[in-house]
C-alpha cells in the first residue's frame, strides 16, 4: 500500500508528530483528494489536548476537517466529480476516522459533503468555508438549531421584521452566521464583537446591522434597547473556554420572557436556572454539532448551493494565514495558541507534495 506523510496524534496532550500512514482508497460515493489546503479550527486543539471526537482513533488520529484540493481518485458510485476537479469539503470527524482528516497529503471526502470550487476562488479561500459555514448553517436552519425557514431555502417565512443576535459575531463561525442571517432576510442582525479601528465596518460587510462592543459594561442593556422583550432568536458562537459561560448567560437573558425564543450554541453550556426561570413562555436551547453527516439532507442542500452563494457574492471567505508543509512545530504552536487563549487568525496548512509517491 502506498504511504503518505501525515501529522499524527498518538496520545492526548502530546504534540502531533510527523509520520507516515497509508493512502486510503475511496469507496462508494467517496473521492480521494490530493490536499492543497487543510484548515485548522479550535476543535483541533480540543482534539489534541482532550481527545474530543478523535480519542477512539488513537494512536493514529489525524486532525483538521476543512479540506480543499484536487480529486485524485473516485469511488464507484461518484457521479458529481471527476479526477482532476478542484473541490472543497468537510471531512467527517464523527465516523470518517483518520482517512477523513486534513493534516496529511491525501484524504477521503464524501462526495455529498463537498462541492466544486468556483473558478475565481483559490484553494485557500475555499478552505475557509467548510467547518465554520456549515456549523452556522446548521445552527440557523436545522431543527436541532434555530429552525429558521427562510425564503432563500425555499420556505415562506419572512424575517424582515425580526431580529437575531449573534453572540461572537467576530468569530469565524459568527461571520458566517451574519451572512446567513442576511440571506434569511432578518431586519436586525445584531453582533457582539470587539470593535476595531474600522469601527465594525468589516462585520457590517458580513451582514451585521448593529455591532455592540463586547467589552462594554452594558452590552445587555444596549441590545435590549434595540429588541425590547421581543427577541426570538439568538446564536452563541463563543468558545466557552474564553467566555466562562458569560456568552451563554447573555444570549439566554436577551430572549423574550413572554414569547418562546430559541438559543443555538456551538459549545456545551447549562442554562442559568435563575435566567431560565424568567422565561414564562419557556425557551428552546440547542447545542449544535455542525457535522454534515449528522444532517444529511440539509447538508447536501448546503453543499449543492454553496458554490452559487460564493459566486454571487452572498458568502465571503474569511481571512487566513498559511503554514507551508506539514510542519509539526508550527502546527503544535498554533494549537498551543488556541489552548492558551491567544488571538488566532484562521490558519491553513499546505501539505508538501514533492515527495508524493501515490501511483
Ligand atoms: N459545534 C460545532 O459544530 C462547532 C463548529 C465550529 C466551531 N465550534 C466551536 O465554536 C467556537 C468558536 O469557533 P470559531 O472557529 O468560530 O472560533 P474563533 O473564530 O477562533 O473565535 C475567536 C473569536 O471569538 C470572539 N470572541 C471571543 N470571546 C468572545 C466573547 N466573550 N464575546 C464575543 N465574542 C468573543 C473574538 O472575536 P472578536 O475579537 O472579533 O470579537 C475571537 O476572535 C469554538 O469553541 C469551536 O470549537 C463548534
From TrEMBL:
CDD domains: enoyl_reductase_like. Keywords: Oxidoreductase. The keyword Oxidoreductase applies. InterPro entries: ADH-like_N, ER, GroES-like_sf, NAD(P)-bd_dom_sf, Trans-enoyl_RdTase-like. Pfam families: ADH_N. SUPFAM superfamilies: GroES-like (SSF50129), NAD(P)-binding Rossmann-fold domains (SSF51735). It comes from the Eukaryota. The keyword Thylakoid does not apply. Residues 13-345 form the Enoyl reductase (ER) domain. GO terms for molecular function: oxidoreductase activity, acting on NAD(P)H. Belongs to the zinc-containing alcohol dehydrogenase family. PANTHER family: HYPOTHETICAL OXIDOREDUCTASE (EUROFUNG), ZINC-TYPE ALCOHOL DEHYDROGENASE-LIKE PROTEIN C2E1P3.01. This is Enoyl reductase (ER) domain-containing protein. It comes from Penicillium arizonense.
Amino acid at each position: 500500500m502506498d504511504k503518505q506523510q501525515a501529522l499524527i496524534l498518538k496520545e492526548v496532550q502530546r504534540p502531533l508528530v510527523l509520520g507516515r500512514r497509508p493512502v486510503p482508497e475511496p469507496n462508494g460515493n467517496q473521492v480521494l483528494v490530493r490536499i492543497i489546503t487543510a484548515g485548522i479550527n479550535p476543535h483541533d486543539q480540543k482534539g489534541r489536548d482532550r481527545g474530543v471526537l478523535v480519542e477512539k482513533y488513537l494512536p493514529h488520529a489525524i486532525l483538521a476537517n476543512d479540506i480543499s484540493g484536487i480529486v485524485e481518485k473516485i469511488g464507484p458510485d461518484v457521479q458529481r466529480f471527476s479526477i482532476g476537479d478542484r473541490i472543497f469539503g468537510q471531512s467527517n470527524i464523527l465516523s470518517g476516522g483518520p482517512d477523513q482528516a486534513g493534516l496529511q497529503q491525501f484524504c477521503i471526502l464524501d462526495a455529498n459533503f463537498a462541492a466544486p470550487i468556483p473558478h475565481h476562488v483559490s484553494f485557500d479561500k475555499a478552505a475557509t468555508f467548510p467547518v465554520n459555514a456549515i456549523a452556522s448553517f446548521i445552527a440557523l436552519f436545522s431543527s436541532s438549531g434555530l429552525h429558521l425557514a427562510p425564503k432563500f431555502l425555499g420556505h415562506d417565512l419572512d424575517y424582515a421584521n425580526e431580529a437575531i443576535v449573534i453572540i461572537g459575531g467576530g468569530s469565524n463561525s459568527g461571520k458566517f452566521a451574519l451572512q446567513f442571517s442576511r440571506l434569511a432576510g432578518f431586519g436586525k442582525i445584531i453582533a457582539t464583537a470587539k470593535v476595531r479601528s474600522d469601527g465594525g465596518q468589516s462585520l457590517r460587510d458580513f451582514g451585521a446591522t448593529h455591532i455592540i462592543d463586547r467589552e462594554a459594561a452594558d452590552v445587555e442593556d444596549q441590545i435590549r434597547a434595540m429588541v425590547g422583550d421581543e427577541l426570538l432568536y439568538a446564536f452563541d458562537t463563543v468558545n466557552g473556554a474564553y467566555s466562562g459561560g458569560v456568552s451563554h448567560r447573555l444570549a439566554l437573558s436577551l430572549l423574550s420572557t413572554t414569547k418562546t425564543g430559541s438559543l443555538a450554541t456551538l459549545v456545551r453550556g447549562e442554562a442559568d436556572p435563575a435566567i431560565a426561570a424568567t422565561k414564562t413562555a419557556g425557551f428552546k436551547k440547542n447545542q449544535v454539532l455542525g457535522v454534515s453527516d449528522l444532517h444529511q439532507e440539509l447538508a447536501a442542500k448546503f453543499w449543492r448551493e454553496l458554490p452559487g452563494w460564493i459566486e454571487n457574492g452572498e458568502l465571503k471567505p474569511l481571512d487566513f494565514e498559511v503554514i507551508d508543509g506539514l510542519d509539526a512545530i508550527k502546527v503544535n504552536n498554533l494549537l498551543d495558541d488556541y489552548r492558551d487563549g491567544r488571538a488566532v487568525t484562521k490558519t491553513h496548512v499546505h501539505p508538501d507534495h514533492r515527495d508524493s509517491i501515490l501511483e
